[in-house]
Structures are given as structure tokens and as C-alpha cells.
Design a protein that fits this description.
There is one protein chain. The strands form 3 sheets. This protein has a 7-stranded mixed β-sheet. It starts with about 30 loop residues before the first strand and ends with a helix. It is globular and about 55 Å long. Helix 5 crosses helix 6 and helix 7 packs across helix 14. With about 475 residues, the chain is an alpha/beta fold. The protein binds nicotinamide-adenine-dinucleotide. The site of nicotinamide-adenine-dinucleotide has 25 residues, from helix 8 and strand 9.
């Protein structure tokens, strides 16, 4: 199935502004009565109904296409499905920053909250040149299904600033972060929306966000963000949680497939927070990591790469640039290496219709969000290459973020072993539900994972109903 170009964000004839009709003045004669949401309701004029919504971008269309594909398995009422096609709230900000050379530069910023049905929204903040409203909307939607799949009392959010983080000095990054946080004050809060790190943001970013928020309240509010330093209420094991969780899920899948993990030849794309920890965990468990890539390109060594040495190098130099531990290859070549397990831990849209036919891995593991395009999914399914989907596989991060938030709210802290054990339990439970649903319904692991998450939120919305 192909995603149509500029596909309107609606299905089966629904209209995008259907649920907001009361806010739009009603010109006489321009309305038609409709009954999709139960009681007959007015809809919007055709010219508005066909206008593209602001977040309608290829990545958001992919999130909606995946959602539509999971619906037959989720089996939820139409009116609930229709509600889930739209984020609850999206804001665009402009963030003025005083640069080190005295210039003032205004950066675009975004925050999208997809669903608050199960609790506060939760999601990362990324600094990247490609951040858009649509990207945030897609990532926020996936966060909703991810939190629900893991049975965490959260909905999904995502935000970020469009900037080149590598060109900003520490001082500029701090001023950008503090102003971004101030602009977000009306919509974030420990019971409203709780940010976390994502691409190019880290513990320090979260510390600045926590401090900015706390200064406005007049007292320390550690529970406003997760992924912050332990010194200000961060959780042990949060930093490693996503990468470690990726390998916990992979280990469980290997178990079901009858593949000894220690015998697998693995390739890891991305060597940041998620990829470097996943590579390290694989190395620790005896698997052979034969390929690694970061933004500077890839490297390949059939006998296995020395992951701890590469981590030390990346820590010192900021990336793997200049390291010659293995044969240097391009990122494209890395994705096509002959291997057992390909861990995608860099960013979205890496396996597409162009290269899906050339992937030679036996199993794909999505550490990143949205790394496999909708078309690639279909090609890989036809080729019999299973994918451990992002909303299950990288859920370790948000799960330990939840543990961090609970610890902050209760002002009581758990040990590393306790958190690791709680994480393993949560991921195993979600993995088993996804695997069993996939087998029972004969659908992909992605469809099963999405359907399992969608069902949880749908049950809550069904019980709560639409206000008023
Ligand atoms: P990061 O910025 O720490 O690391 C990203 C890594 O990918 C870097 O090594 C970078 O050099 C590399 N990279 C970027 N573009 C690349 C390309 N085109 N080819 C090869 N390598 C490339 O970010 P992160 O926190 O590790 O996040 C990575 C992915 O995981 C993102 O999709 C993010 O949304 C997702 N994720 C992160 C977390 C988390 O807790 N950090 C949780 C869930 C999902």
C-alpha cells in the first residue's frame, strides 16, 4: 500500500474540522448536516474541509497511515478512531536568542500534545535542522500509542527547536533552552505535559528546563522533566534505559525465534544515547557488533568492533569522525551489510522504498522513532524480514521516565537494580502481548503493537466520552 501524496488527514469521508464546528461562524446555507459522531452535526464548508491541516507532512501522513492499518486489529468505534487522527493541541513558537557574537536570532519552536486521555502528555524535545510541526505531530502520536502499550498513565507529546545544535555554543544552547521553556510555560507542567530529552538534547538541557520552570514557581519542581541529572531528582538508569530496553526486547524476540543472542552478528546505525548504549549492551551479552554508523559515516569489521573503545572515542571527540577502527563505509552501505540484526538508532526514514529491497539483515530493530517508511514496511514484510517496532522497542526510555516522575512526586528513590528489574518486567509484558496478538491475528508486530496501544486509549476515551 502506498501513501498518497498530500493525503488529507481523514478517512472514510470524515472532515478535518468536524469536531470544532462550534468555533467557526456558520454562513447560512454553507453547511450540511452530518451524523458521524452520533447526534446529527453541522460540518464545515467544502473549501475548508479540503484545506491541508498545518501538521499534514509526509511523516504525519505515515503515522496516520500506520494507525489506519492497525485499526482492523484494534477494532474500535469509528468516532474514537476519528478523534485519534488529530493531536489535541499544537503550538508554534518563535524563540529569540542572543548569540555569542551579539546578533539576535529567532528560532522556530514547536510542541504538539496528541492525547491527554490517560494522563499528562509526555515526550521528548529535539534540537535539529529538520524539526517541523508535522514531525512533532507524528512523534507525539507514536508516543501516545507507546505509553498506552506500556500501560503508563500518559499520552503522547513531542517538541523541538529548528536549529543546528552543533553550531551553537553551550551559552547559546542554554539561552535557547531557557527561552524555549519560558515560552512553553502555559502548556507544560507535572500534571499537564512533561518534557524529556530526544535528539541533541540531554541531561543538561533538562536541568536548564527544570531550573527555568522552578524559578517561575518559586520552588524546586523536579517532576516537570525527566532525563535530568541525578543530583536534581533524575533517576539512576534513565540515561541507559532506551538503549538497554532495545536489547531487552531484542533478547526476548531472539528467545521466541530460537536464536541465541550471543551468536548474532549485529549492525547499529546511530551512536548517540540510544545506539551507543544498545551497541554496548549487545557487546556485553556476547553478540558481535560488526558495523556502527553515526553522522560522520559508518565503519565495518567482520571480526567485531571494540564498542567500549568507540564509546570512549565518541565521548572525547563528539562523534566517530576520524576513527579508523574498522573499514570506513557510507551510511547507505552500512544499512545493506550482511548481518543478523540491524538496529536502527539514528533517526526517522532510514529504510525506505529505495533501499528496503537491499537490506540483508534477518531482523530489524527500531531503536529510533519512525526509521522504516510505510512502503519499506510492506517490502520487508513481503521479504519475510520481521521488524521489532519502535513503539515497543524504544519504550525503555519513557518507561524509566515514568519511574523518574513517580519517584520525584513521591520524593522516594529506587536503586538501579530495582529500576532495571521493573523495566524488564514492563517490557516483557508488553512484548508478550504484542507477539501473541501478532500471531493470533496474523499481522505484523507493528500492527499488533499499535493496535494494543490504540485499544488502551480507546477504552479510556469510551469510558470518559467527549466533553461536554
Ligand atoms: P542522539 O542525538 O543522542 O544520537 C543520534 C545519533 O544518530 C548520533 O550518533 C548521530 O550522529 C547519529 N545520526 C544522525 N543522523 C544520522 C544518519 N543520517 N546516519 C547515521 N547516523 C546518524 O539521539 P538519541 O537520543 O540517541 O535518539 C536517536 C533516536 O532514538 C531518535 O529517533 C529518537 O527520537 C529515538 N529515541 C530516543 C530516546 C531517548 O531516550 N534518547 C527514546 C526513544 C526514542
Amino acid at each position: 500500500m502506498k501513501i498518497p501524496e498530500a493525503r488529507p488527514l481523514r478517512a472514510r469521508g470524515a472532515r478535518p474540522y468536524e469536531m470544532r464546528e462550534r468555533r467557526i461562524p456558520r454562513p447560512p446555507g454553507a453547511w450540511e448536516a452530518r451524523g458521524r459522531l452520533g447526534a446529527p452535526m453541522a460540518s464545515v464548508p467544502d473549501e475548508l474541509a479540503h484545506a491541508q491541516l498545518e501538521w499534514d507532512t509526509p511523516l504525519y501522513r505515515m503515522a496516520v497511515a500506520q494507525f489506519d492499518q492497525a485499526l482492523p486489529v484494534a477494532d474500535i468505534p469509528d468516532w474514537i478512531a476519528e478523534r485519534f487522527r488529530y493531536p489535541e493541541r499544537a503550538v508554534i513558537l518563535s524563540i529569540p536568542v542572543r548569540m555569542d557574537d551579539g546578533r539576535r536570532v529567532v528560532f522556530p519552536g514547536y510542541r504538539v500534545q496528541h492525547s491527554s486521555i490517560l494522563g499528562p502528555t509526555k515526550g521528548g524535545v529535539r534540537y535539529d535542522t529538520e524539526v517541523t510541526l508535522g514531525e512533532c505531530a507524528a512523534l507525539a502520536t507514536w508516543m501516545t500509542w507507546k505509553c498506552a502499550l506500556l500501560r503508563l498513565p500518559y499520552g503522547g507529546a513531542k517538541g523541538g527547536v529548528r536549529c543546528d545544535p552543533r553550531s551553537l555554543s553551550p551559552g547559546e544552547t542554554e539561552r535557547l533552552t531557557r527561552r524555549f521553556t519560558s515560552e512553553l510555560l502555559p502548556i507544560i507542567g507535572p500534571q499537564e505535559d512533561i518534557p524529556a530529552p530526544d535528539m541533541a538534547t540531554n541531561e543538561q538541557t533538562m536541568a536548564w528546563m527544570m531550573d527555568t520552570y522552578s524559578m517561575q514557581r518559586g520552588y524546586a519542581v523536579p517532576e516537570i522533566v525527566t532525563g535530568k541529572p541525578i543530583a536534581i531528582g533524575g533517576s539512576v538508569f534513565r540515561q541507559e534505559a532506551t538503549g538497554a530496553g532495545v536489547v531487552m526486547v531484542l533478547a526476548r524476540a531472539c528467545n521466541r525465534l530460537g536464536w541465541p543472542l550471543a551468536e548474532q552478528r549485529c549492525v547499529v546505525q546511530g551512536f548517540g544515547n540510544v545506539g551507543s548504549v544498545a551497541a554496548h549492551e549487545l557487546h556485553e551479552l556476547g553478540a558481535t557488533v560488526i558495523g556502527i554508523a553515526d553522522i560522520s559515516g559508518g565503519m565495518h569489521a567482520e571480526a567485531g568492533l571494540d564498542v567500549p573503545a568507540l564509546q570512549a572515542y565518541a565521548r572525547e571527540h563528539g562523534s566517530l569522525e576520524g576513527n579508523d577502527s574498522g573499514r570506513r563505509i557510507s551510511n547507505e552501505e552500512l544499512l545493506e551489510l550482511d548481518c543478523d540484526v540491524l538496529v536502527l538508532a539514528a533517526r526517522e526514514d532510514q529504510i525506505t522504498a529505495e533501499n528496503a529491497g537491499d537490506v540483508r539483515a534477518r531482523l530489524i530493530v527500531e531503536g529510533a522513532n519512525g526509521p522504516t517508511s510505510f512502503e519499506a514496511d510492506e517490502i520487508l514484510r513481503e521479504r519475510g524480514i520481521p521488524i521489532l517496532p519502535d513503539i515497543l522497542t524504544n519504550a525503555g526510555g519513557v518507561t524509566v521516565s515514568y519511574f523518574e516522575w513517580v519517584q520525584d512526586l513521591g520524593r522516594i528513590f529506587w536503586t538501579r537494580d530495582e529500576i532495571r528489574a521493573k523495566l524488564a518486567e514492563k517490557l516483557s509484558d508488553a512484548f508478550d502481548r504484542v507477539w501473541d496478538l501478532s500471531e493470533a491475528r496474523g499481522v505484523t508486530l507493528r500492527q499488533a503493537a499499535l493496535a494494543a496501544g490504540i485499544r488502551e486509549v480507546a477504552a479510556a476515551l469510551d469510558a470518559r466520552g467527549i466533553f461536554p
